[in-house]
Amino acid sequence: MASTSSLTLSQALLARTIFSDGSTQFSDCSVSLPTTTFSGLKLTTPRSRRVLPTRFNRSLRVRSAAVETIGTPAETSLLEKSVNTIRFLAIDAVEKANSGHPGLPMGCAPMGHILYDEIMRYNPKNPYWFNRDRFVLSAGHGCMLQYALLHLAGYDSVQEDDLKNFRQWQSRTPGHPENFETPGVEVTTGPLGQGIANAVGLALAEKHLAARFNKPDNEIVDHYTYAILGDGCQMEGVANEACSLAGHWGLGKLIAFYDDNHISIDGDTEIAFTENVEERFKGLGWHVIWVKNGNTGYDEIRAAIKEAKAVKDKPTLIKVTTTIGYGSPNKANSYSVHGSALGAKEVDATRKNLVWPHEPFHVPEDVKGHWSRLVQQGAALEAEWNAKFAEYEKKYKDEAAELKLIITAELPAGWEKALPVSTPLIVPSPESRLNLVEHLNS
Ligand SMILES: Cc1ncc(C[n+]2csc(CCOP(=O)(O)OP(=O)(O)O)c2C)c(N)n1
Protein backbone atom coordinates (compact mmCIF):
# COMPACT_ATOMS: atom_id res chain seq x y z
CA MET A 1 0.00 0.00 0.00
CA ALA A 2 1.49 3.32 -1.02
CA SER A 3 1.82 6.05 1.56
CA THR A 4 -0.34 9.14 1.32
CA SER A 5 2.65 11.27 0.50
CA SER A 6 3.72 8.99 -2.31
CA LEU A 7 0.26 8.98 -3.74
CA THR A 8 0.28 12.72 -3.55
CA LEU A 9 3.41 12.70 -5.64
CA SER A 10 1.79 10.64 -8.34
CA GLN A 11 -1.32 12.74 -8.21
CA ALA A 12 0.68 15.87 -8.73
CA LEU A 13 2.23 14.42 -11.80
CA LEU A 14 -1.09 13.23 -13.11
CA ALA A 15 -2.39 16.72 -12.54
CA ARG A 16 0.07 17.93 -15.12
CA THR A 17 -1.96 16.26 -17.85
CA ILE A 18 -2.91 18.75 -20.23
CA PHE A 19 -6.45 19.92 -20.52
CA SER A 20 -7.65 23.44 -20.34
CA ASP A 21 -10.83 22.39 -18.60
CA GLY A 22 -8.75 20.93 -15.81
CA SER A 23 -9.82 17.35 -16.43
CA THR A 24 -7.33 14.54 -16.68
CA GLN A 25 -7.22 12.11 -19.48
CA PHE A 26 -7.15 9.00 -17.34
CA SER A 27 -10.69 7.87 -16.88
CA ASP A 28 -9.69 4.77 -14.95
CA CYS A 29 -7.41 6.67 -12.63
CA SER A 30 -8.58 5.91 -9.14
CA VAL A 31 -7.07 8.93 -7.42
CA SER A 32 -8.89 12.22 -7.13
CA LEU A 33 -6.79 15.32 -7.32
CA PRO A 34 -6.73 17.73 -4.43
CA THR A 35 -6.77 20.79 -6.64
CA THR A 36 -5.82 23.21 -3.87
CA THR A 37 -2.55 21.38 -3.25
CA PHE A 38 -1.51 21.62 -6.84
CA SER A 39 -2.96 24.92 -7.83
CA GLY A 40 0.55 26.10 -8.69
CA LEU A 41 0.77 23.73 -11.62
CA LYS A 42 0.02 25.37 -14.88
CA LEU A 43 -2.37 23.63 -17.23
CA THR A 44 -1.43 24.02 -20.82
CA THR A 45 -4.11 24.88 -23.31
CA PRO A 46 -3.95 22.69 -26.39
CA ARG A 47 -2.39 24.73 -29.10
CA SER A 48 -4.21 25.81 -32.19
CA ARG A 49 -2.71 23.57 -34.78
CA ARG A 50 -0.72 24.64 -37.68
CA VAL A 51 -1.64 23.33 -41.09
CA LEU A 52 1.02 20.97 -42.27
CA PRO A 53 2.29 21.71 -45.71
CA THR A 54 1.91 18.75 -48.00
CA ARG A 55 5.25 17.60 -49.27
CA PHE A 56 5.61 18.39 -52.94
CA ASN A 57 5.63 15.39 -55.19
CA ARG A 58 8.98 14.25 -56.27
CA SER A 59 9.66 11.92 -59.10
CA LEU A 60 11.03 9.02 -57.21
CA ARG A 61 13.99 6.95 -58.13
CA VAL A 62 13.62 3.67 -56.34
CA ARG A 63 16.59 1.41 -55.77
CA SER A 64 14.65 -1.80 -55.88
CA ALA A 65 17.70 -3.89 -56.65
CA ALA A 66 19.07 -3.30 -53.18
CA VAL A 67 15.98 -4.60 -51.46
CA GLU A 68 15.91 -7.99 -49.86
CA THR A 69 12.69 -9.94 -50.03
CA ILE A 70 11.85 -11.71 -46.86
CA GLY A 71 11.12 -15.38 -47.21
CA THR A 72 7.81 -16.77 -46.09
CA PRO A 73 8.39 -18.40 -42.74
CA ALA A 74 6.13 -21.37 -42.00
CA GLU A 75 5.23 -19.85 -38.69
CA THR A 76 6.13 -16.41 -37.51
CA SER A 77 7.09 -16.19 -33.90
CA LEU A 78 5.13 -13.99 -31.53
CA LEU A 79 8.09 -11.62 -31.47
CA GLU A 80 8.10 -11.21 -35.25
CA LYS A 81 4.35 -10.86 -35.20
CA SER A 82 4.58 -8.10 -32.63
CA VAL A 83 7.31 -6.31 -34.57
CA ASN A 84 5.24 -6.58 -37.73
CA THR A 85 2.24 -5.20 -35.85
CA ILE A 86 4.28 -2.06 -35.17
CA ARG A 87 5.30 -1.89 -38.83
CA PHE A 88 1.76 -2.24 -40.12
CA LEU A 89 0.23 0.20 -37.63
CA ALA A 90 2.71 2.72 -39.02
CA ILE A 91 2.06 1.74 -42.63
CA ASP A 92 -1.72 1.86 -42.18
CA ALA A 93 -1.77 5.17 -40.31
CA VAL A 94 0.43 6.90 -42.88
CA GLU A 95 -1.60 5.36 -45.68
CA LYS A 96 -4.89 6.56 -44.20
CA ALA A 97 -3.54 10.07 -43.67
CA ASN A 98 -1.74 9.90 -47.00
CA SER A 99 1.01 11.73 -45.19
CA GLY A 100 3.84 10.84 -42.86
CA HIS A 101 7.01 8.79 -42.58
CA PRO A 102 6.60 5.01 -42.69
CA GLY A 103 10.25 4.13 -43.41
CA LEU A 104 11.74 4.74 -39.98
CA PRO A 105 9.09 2.84 -37.99
CA MET A 106 9.40 -0.12 -40.37
CA GLY A 107 13.17 -0.18 -39.88
CA CYS A 108 13.26 0.62 -36.17
CA ALA A 109 10.38 -1.64 -35.10
CA PRO A 110 12.71 -4.36 -33.68
CA MET A 111 14.68 -1.98 -31.44
CA GLY A 112 11.46 -0.16 -30.47
CA HIS A 113 9.79 -3.44 -29.60
CA ILE A 114 12.69 -4.62 -27.43
CA LEU A 115 12.86 -1.29 -25.62
CA TYR A 116 9.18 -0.96 -24.77
CA ASP A 117 8.42 -4.65 -24.35
CA GLU A 118 11.51 -5.93 -22.57
CA ILE A 119 13.73 -3.19 -21.27
CA MET A 120 12.04 0.01 -20.21
CA ARG A 121 10.41 0.51 -16.82
CA TYR A 122 7.27 2.61 -17.01
CA ASN A 123 3.65 2.65 -15.95
CA PRO A 124 1.33 3.10 -18.95
CA LYS A 125 -1.51 4.23 -16.66
CA ASN A 126 0.62 6.94 -15.11
CA PRO A 127 2.93 8.37 -17.77
CA TYR A 128 4.20 10.86 -15.19
CA TRP A 129 5.48 8.37 -12.62
CA PHE A 130 8.66 10.06 -11.56
CA ASN A 131 11.14 7.19 -11.67
CA ARG A 132 10.12 5.91 -15.12
CA ASP A 133 12.71 5.38 -17.82
CA ARG A 134 12.59 8.13 -20.40
CA PHE A 135 12.40 7.63 -24.16
CA VAL A 136 13.03 10.36 -26.72
CA LEU A 137 12.42 9.85 -30.41
CA SER A 138 14.91 12.38 -31.67
CA ALA A 139 14.05 11.44 -35.24
CA GLY A 140 10.58 12.81 -34.56
CA HIS A 141 9.36 12.40 -38.14
CA GLY A 142 9.17 8.64 -37.43
CA CYS A 143 6.58 9.28 -34.70
CA MET A 144 4.30 6.45 -35.83
CA LEU A 145 6.89 4.18 -34.22
CA GLN A 146 6.29 5.83 -30.87
CA TYR A 147 2.50 5.98 -31.27
CA ALA A 148 2.37 2.27 -32.16
CA LEU A 149 4.50 1.43 -29.13
CA LEU A 150 2.42 3.58 -26.76
CA HIS A 151 -0.71 1.95 -28.15
CA LEU A 152 0.56 -1.59 -27.64
CA ALA A 153 1.95 -0.76 -24.20
CA GLY A 154 -1.51 0.32 -23.02
CA TYR A 155 -1.22 4.11 -22.75
CA ASP A 156 -4.70 5.63 -22.73
CA SER A 157 -3.46 8.49 -24.87
CA VAL A 158 -3.07 6.39 -28.02
CA GLN A 159 -6.16 4.31 -28.77
CA GLU A 160 -7.01 2.67 -32.08
CA ASP A 161 -9.02 5.74 -33.08
CA ASP A 162 -6.04 7.95 -32.36
CA LEU A 163 -3.97 5.88 -34.76
CA LYS A 164 -6.73 6.25 -37.34
CA ASN A 165 -6.59 10.01 -36.78
CA PHE A 166 -2.86 10.27 -37.34
CA ARG A 167 -1.89 13.73 -38.59
CA GLN A 168 -5.47 15.03 -38.38
CA TRP A 169 -6.61 18.32 -36.92
CA GLN A 170 -6.57 18.20 -33.10
CA SER A 171 -5.71 14.53 -32.92
CA ARG A 172 -3.53 13.12 -30.16
CA THR A 173 -1.23 11.74 -32.81
CA PRO A 174 0.21 14.76 -34.58
CA GLY A 175 2.79 14.47 -37.33
CA HIS A 176 5.66 14.85 -34.90
CA PRO A 177 5.64 13.89 -31.20
CA GLU A 178 4.28 16.62 -28.92
CA ASN A 179 4.65 16.12 -25.18
CA PHE A 180 1.69 18.40 -24.45
CA GLU A 181 -0.64 16.51 -26.77
CA THR A 182 0.18 12.89 -26.08
CA PRO A 183 0.90 11.68 -22.53
CA GLY A 184 3.74 9.18 -22.84
CA VAL A 185 5.68 11.40 -25.19
CA GLU A 186 8.42 12.89 -23.02
CA VAL A 187 9.71 15.52 -25.36
CA THR A 188 8.39 17.36 -28.38
CA THR A 189 10.66 16.48 -31.27
CA GLY A 190 10.91 17.07 -34.99
CA PRO A 191 13.67 19.61 -35.41
CA LEU A 192 16.45 17.11 -36.04
CA GLY A 193 19.17 16.90 -33.41
CA GLN A 194 17.18 18.69 -30.75
CA GLY A 195 15.64 15.49 -29.34
CA ILE A 196 18.98 13.91 -28.55
CA ALA A 197 20.01 17.21 -26.94
CA ASN A 198 16.89 16.99 -24.76
CA ALA A 199 17.73 13.37 -23.96
CA VAL A 200 21.13 14.54 -22.72
CA GLY A 201 19.28 17.04 -20.51
CA LEU A 202 17.02 14.32 -19.10
CA ALA A 203 19.98 12.05 -18.38
CA LEU A 204 21.81 14.94 -16.74
CA ALA A 205 18.77 15.69 -14.56
CA GLU A 206 18.70 12.05 -13.46
CA LYS A 207 22.38 12.06 -12.60
CA HIS A 208 22.14 15.37 -10.76
CA LEU A 209 19.10 14.32 -8.71
CA ALA A 210 20.69 10.94 -7.96
CA ALA A 211 23.84 12.65 -6.71
CA ARG A 212 21.81 15.00 -4.57
CA PHE A 213 19.21 12.66 -3.10
CA ASN A 214 20.38 9.05 -3.30
CA LYS A 215 21.57 7.42 -0.09
CA PRO A 216 23.72 4.31 0.25
CA ASP A 217 20.69 2.42 1.55
CA ASN A 218 18.10 3.97 -0.74
CA GLU A 219 18.73 4.96 -4.36
CA ILE A 220 15.47 6.76 -4.82
CA VAL A 221 16.42 8.30 -8.19
CA ASP A 222 17.38 5.57 -10.61
CA HIS A 223 16.27 5.52 -14.22
CA TYR A 224 17.63 5.40 -17.76
CA THR A 225 17.16 7.70 -20.71
CA TYR A 226 16.87 6.06 -24.13
CA ALA A 227 16.79 7.82 -27.48
CA ILE A 228 16.58 6.95 -31.15
CA LEU A 229 18.28 9.29 -33.56
CA GLY A 230 18.87 9.02 -37.28
CA ASP A 231 21.34 10.31 -39.84
CA GLY A 232 19.52 13.65 -39.95
CA CYS A 233 20.06 14.15 -36.19
CA GLN A 234 23.70 13.20 -36.57
CA MET A 235 24.13 15.92 -39.17
CA GLU A 236 22.97 18.65 -36.80
CA GLY A 237 25.48 20.67 -34.80
CA VAL A 238 23.27 20.81 -31.73
CA ALA A 239 23.43 17.02 -31.43
CA ASN A 240 27.20 17.04 -31.42
CA GLU A 241 27.39 19.85 -28.87
CA ALA A 242 25.00 18.12 -26.47
CA CYS A 243 26.63 14.70 -26.97
CA SER A 244 30.00 16.27 -26.24
CA LEU A 245 28.65 17.41 -22.89
CA ALA A 246 27.14 13.98 -22.24
CA GLY A 247 30.57 12.44 -22.79
CA HIS A 248 32.21 15.06 -20.60
CA TRP A 249 29.73 14.43 -17.80
CA GLY A 250 29.95 10.66 -18.19
CA LEU A 251 26.19 10.14 -18.38
CA GLY A 252 26.26 6.37 -18.05
CA LYS A 253 22.49 6.03 -17.99
CA LEU A 254 22.04 7.59 -21.42
CA ILE A 255 21.70 5.00 -24.18
CA ALA A 256 21.14 6.28 -27.71
CA PHE A 257 20.29 4.13 -30.71
CA TYR A 258 21.59 5.48 -33.99
CA ASP A 259 19.35 4.27 -36.82
CA ASP A 260 22.07 3.71 -39.37
CA ASN A 261 19.98 3.08 -42.48
CA HIS A 262 22.13 4.97 -45.00
CA ILE A 263 19.10 6.82 -46.32
CA SER A 264 17.96 10.36 -45.65
CA ILE A 265 15.35 12.69 -47.10
CA ASP A 266 17.06 13.12 -50.50
CA GLY A 267 18.60 9.72 -51.04
CA ASP A 268 21.66 7.77 -49.96
CA THR A 269 23.75 9.33 -47.21
CA GLU A 270 26.72 8.89 -49.58
CA ILE A 271 25.52 12.14 -51.18
CA ALA A 272 26.35 14.34 -48.20
CA PHE A 273 27.11 12.44 -45.01
CA THR A 274 30.12 10.16 -44.99
CA GLU A 275 31.78 10.94 -41.67
CA ASN A 276 32.70 8.15 -39.29
CA VAL A 277 30.04 8.59 -36.62
CA GLU A 278 31.43 5.81 -34.44
CA GLU A 279 34.89 7.37 -34.24
CA ARG A 280 33.39 10.80 -33.58
CA PHE A 281 31.39 9.47 -30.65
CA LYS A 282 34.42 7.65 -29.27
CA GLY A 283 36.17 10.99 -29.44
CA LEU A 284 33.32 12.58 -27.51
CA GLY A 285 33.87 10.07 -24.73
CA TRP A 286 31.02 7.67 -25.50
CA HIS A 287 31.02 3.92 -25.45
CA VAL A 288 30.10 2.74 -28.94
CA ILE A 289 28.57 -0.57 -30.04
CA TRP A 290 27.60 -1.66 -33.54
CA VAL A 291 24.59 -3.90 -34.10
CA LYS A 292 25.09 -5.08 -37.64
CA ASN A 293 21.65 -6.57 -38.15
CA GLY A 294 19.02 -4.27 -36.73
CA ASN A 295 16.30 -5.82 -38.92
CA THR A 296 16.14 -9.26 -37.36
CA GLY A 297 19.06 -9.40 -34.94
CA TYR A 298 16.97 -9.34 -31.79
CA ASP A 299 19.62 -11.01 -29.67
CA GLU A 300 22.25 -8.63 -31.00
CA ILE A 301 20.09 -5.68 -29.92
CA ARG A 302 19.50 -7.22 -26.48
CA ALA A 303 23.20 -7.91 -26.00
CA ALA A 304 24.07 -4.35 -26.97
CA ILE A 305 21.67 -2.93 -24.38
CA LYS A 306 23.13 -5.26 -21.75
CA GLU A 307 26.63 -4.11 -22.62
CA ALA A 308 25.57 -0.46 -22.59
CA LYS A 309 24.08 -0.81 -19.12
CA ALA A 310 27.27 -2.37 -17.82
CA VAL A 311 29.21 0.74 -18.82
CA LYS A 312 28.48 3.06 -15.94
CA ASP A 313 30.80 5.95 -16.60
CA LYS A 314 30.07 6.75 -20.24
CA PRO A 315 26.95 7.26 -22.33
CA THR A 316 26.51 4.62 -25.03
CA LEU A 317 25.77 5.00 -28.71
CA ILE A 318 24.39 1.81 -30.25
CA LYS A 319 24.74 2.11 -33.98
CA VAL A 320 22.03 -0.15 -35.37
CA THR A 321 22.23 -0.87 -39.06
CA THR A 322 18.69 -1.17 -40.38
CA THR A 323 16.83 -1.05 -43.67
CA ILE A 324 14.50 1.90 -44.02
CA GLY A 325 11.05 0.64 -45.00
CA TYR A 326 12.02 -2.94 -44.15
CA GLY A 327 9.56 -5.37 -45.70
CA SER A 328 8.45 -3.24 -48.62
CA PRO A 329 9.60 -5.19 -51.70
CA ASN A 330 9.96 -2.20 -54.02
CA LYS A 331 10.55 0.77 -51.75
CA ALA A 332 12.70 -0.42 -48.86
CA ASN A 333 16.18 1.03 -48.77
CA SER A 334 15.18 4.07 -50.76
CA TYR A 335 14.23 7.61 -49.91
CA SER A 336 10.78 7.06 -51.42
CA VAL A 337 9.77 5.38 -48.16
CA HIS A 338 11.26 8.08 -45.94
CA GLY A 339 8.38 10.55 -46.02
CA SER A 340 5.49 9.32 -48.16
CA ALA A 341 2.74 6.77 -47.93
CA LEU A 342 3.64 3.50 -49.60
CA GLY A 343 0.55 3.56 -51.84
CA ALA A 344 -2.12 0.87 -52.01
CA LYS A 345 -0.21 -1.38 -54.41
CA GLU A 346 2.97 -1.37 -52.35
CA VAL A 347 1.03 -1.82 -49.11
CA ASP A 348 -0.44 -5.00 -50.61
CA ALA A 349 2.96 -6.16 -51.74
CA THR A 350 4.37 -5.50 -48.26
CA ARG A 351 1.50 -7.41 -46.65
CA LYS A 352 2.31 -10.39 -48.85
CA ASN A 353 6.03 -10.07 -48.26
CA LEU A 354 5.72 -9.93 -44.47
CA VAL A 355 2.91 -12.48 -44.46
CA TRP A 356 0.41 -10.09 -42.92
CA PRO A 357 -3.10 -11.10 -43.93
CA HIS A 358 -4.83 -8.72 -41.52
CA GLU A 359 -7.07 -5.72 -42.04
CA PRO A 360 -5.57 -2.24 -41.53
CA PHE A 361 -4.93 -1.33 -37.87
CA HIS A 362 -5.40 -4.90 -36.71
CA VAL A 363 -3.56 -6.05 -33.60
CA PRO A 364 -3.62 -9.86 -33.39
CA GLU A 365 -5.05 -11.23 -30.13
CA ASP A 366 -1.85 -13.01 -29.11
CA VAL A 367 0.13 -9.81 -29.62
CA LYS A 368 -2.43 -7.89 -27.54
CA GLY A 369 -2.25 -10.57 -24.87
CA HIS A 370 1.52 -10.44 -24.83
CA TRP A 371 1.64 -6.67 -24.30
CA SER A 372 -1.23 -6.57 -21.82
CA ARG A 373 1.01 -7.71 -18.95
CA LEU A 374 2.77 -4.34 -19.07
CA VAL A 375 -0.13 -2.50 -17.46
CA GLN A 376 0.06 -4.67 -14.36
CA GLN A 377 3.82 -4.68 -14.42
CA GLY A 378 3.93 -0.88 -14.63
CA ALA A 379 1.54 -0.48 -11.70
CA ALA A 380 3.70 -2.87 -9.66
CA LEU A 381 6.87 -0.96 -10.52
CA GLU A 382 5.34 2.30 -9.43
CA ALA A 383 3.93 0.79 -6.22
CA GLU A 384 7.35 -0.65 -5.43
CA TRP A 385 8.92 2.78 -5.90
CA ASN A 386 6.22 4.42 -3.80
CA ALA A 387 7.03 2.03 -0.97
CA LYS A 388 10.71 2.87 -1.40
CA PHE A 389 9.88 6.55 -1.23
CA ALA A 390 7.86 6.03 1.95
CA GLU A 391 10.93 4.39 3.53
CA TYR A 392 13.09 7.24 2.29
CA GLU A 393 10.70 9.78 3.72
CA LYS A 394 10.77 8.12 7.15
CA LYS A 395 14.53 8.22 7.31
CA TYR A 396 15.40 11.35 5.31
CA LYS A 397 12.54 13.73 6.00
CA ASP A 398 14.11 16.97 4.77
CA GLU A 399 15.53 15.48 1.59
CA ALA A 400 12.21 13.79 0.83
CA ALA A 401 10.35 17.08 1.25
CA GLU A 402 12.80 18.83 -1.06
CA LEU A 403 12.67 16.11 -3.70
CA LYS A 404 8.88 16.25 -3.61
CA LEU A 405 8.96 19.98 -4.24
CA ILE A 406 11.25 19.45 -7.20
CA ILE A 407 9.05 16.69 -8.65
CA THR A 408 5.86 18.70 -8.28
CA ALA A 409 7.56 21.90 -9.49
CA GLU A 410 6.55 23.82 -6.40
CA LEU A 411 8.54 26.48 -4.58
CA PRO A 412 9.61 26.08 -0.96
CA ALA A 413 7.69 28.05 1.70
CA GLY A 414 9.08 31.53 2.10
CA TRP A 415 10.72 31.56 -1.33
CA GLU A 416 9.79 35.22 -1.76
CA LYS A 417 12.10 36.15 1.11
CA ALA A 418 15.04 35.00 -0.97
CA LEU A 419 14.32 37.54 -3.72
CA PRO A 420 16.92 40.33 -3.99
CA VAL A 421 15.82 43.64 -2.52
CA SER A 422 15.73 46.26 -5.29
CA THR A 423 18.05 49.25 -5.12
CA PRO A 424 16.22 52.61 -4.95
CA LEU A 425 16.27 54.44 -8.26
CA ILE A 426 18.95 57.15 -8.37
CA VAL A 427 17.64 60.19 -10.21
CA PRO A 428 20.51 62.00 -11.89
CA SER A 429 20.79 65.70 -11.13
CA PRO A 430 20.32 68.21 -14.01
CA GLU A 431 24.05 69.06 -13.75
CA SER A 432 25.19 65.49 -14.24
CA ARG A 433 22.86 65.18 -17.22
CA LEU A 434 24.42 68.24 -18.80
CA ASN A 435 27.85 66.75 -18.16
CA LEU A 436 26.82 63.60 -19.96
CA VAL A 437 25.55 65.56 -22.98
CA GLU A 438 28.86 67.41 -23.12
CA HIS A 439 30.75 64.16 -23.04
CA LEU A 440 28.64 62.69 -25.82
CA ASN A 441 29.12 65.77 -27.96
CA SER A 442 32.87 65.99 -27.40
C1 LIG B 1 16.69 20.76 -38.19
C2 LIG B 1 15.83 20.10 -39.25
N1 LIG B 1 16.12 20.27 -40.56
C3 LIG B 1 15.37 19.67 -41.50
C4 LIG B 1 14.30 18.90 -41.15
C5 LIG B 1 13.43 18.25 -42.25
N2 LIG B 1 13.65 16.78 -42.24
C6 LIG B 1 12.76 15.96 -41.68
S1 LIG B 1 13.24 14.37 -41.76
C7 LIG B 1 14.65 14.78 -42.58
C8 LIG B 1 15.64 13.74 -42.98
C9 LIG B 1 16.03 12.86 -41.85
O1 LIG B 1 16.84 11.85 -42.31
P1 LIG B 1 17.12 10.58 -41.42
O2 LIG B 1 17.42 11.00 -40.06
O3 LIG B 1 18.15 9.78 -42.15
O4 LIG B 1 15.73 9.84 -41.38
P2 LIG B 1 15.26 8.55 -42.22
O5 LIG B 1 15.41 8.90 -43.66
O6 LIG B 1 16.13 7.44 -41.81
O7 LIG B 1 13.83 8.40 -41.80
C10 LIG B 1 14.74 16.15 -42.78
C11 LIG B 1 15.86 16.83 -43.44
C12 LIG B 1 14.01 18.77 -39.78
N3 LIG B 1 13.00 18.02 -39.35
N4 LIG B 1 14.80 19.36 -38.86
Q: Can I get a quick summary?
A:
The protein is α/β, with parallel strands linked by helices.
Alpha-beta content class: alpha/beta
Strand content: 5-15%
Mean pLDDT: 85
In N-to-C order, the SSE pattern is HHHEHHHEHHEEEHEHEHHHH
Q: What would the CATH topology be?
A: Rossmann fold
The first-level CATH class is given as Alpha Beta
**What is the CATH architecture descriptor?**
3-Layer(aba) Sandwich
Percent of residues in helices? 40-55%
Identify the CATH homologous superfamily.
Thiamin diphosphate (ThDP)-binding fold, Pyr/PP domains
Task: Explain what the structure shows.
It comes from Gossypium arboreum (Tree cotton). With 442 residues, the chain is an alpha/beta fold. It has one domain: Thiamin diphosphate (ThDP)-binding fold, Pyr/PP domains (Rossmann fold). A hairpin with a 2-residue loop joins strand 4 and strand 5. Helix 2 packs across helix 4 and helix 3 packs parallel to helix 4. The N terminus is likely disordered. Thiamine diphosphate binds next to helix 3, helix 7 and strand 4.
What is the element layout, followed by pairings?
Layout lengths: L3 H11 L63 H20 L5 H17 L14 E4 L5 H11 L6 H5 L29 H20 L11 E6 H5 L1 H13 L4 E7 L2 E2 L2 E2 L8 H7 L3 E5 L6 H13 L5 E6 L22 H10 L11 H31 L1 H11 L22 H12 L1
Parallel strand pairs: 1-2, 2-3, 3-7, 6-7
Antiparallel strand pairs: 4-5
Helix pairs in contact: 2-3, 2-4, 3-4, 6-8, 12-13
Bound molecules: thiamine diphosphate.
The site of thiamine diphosphate has 21 residues, from helix 3, helix 7 and strand 4.
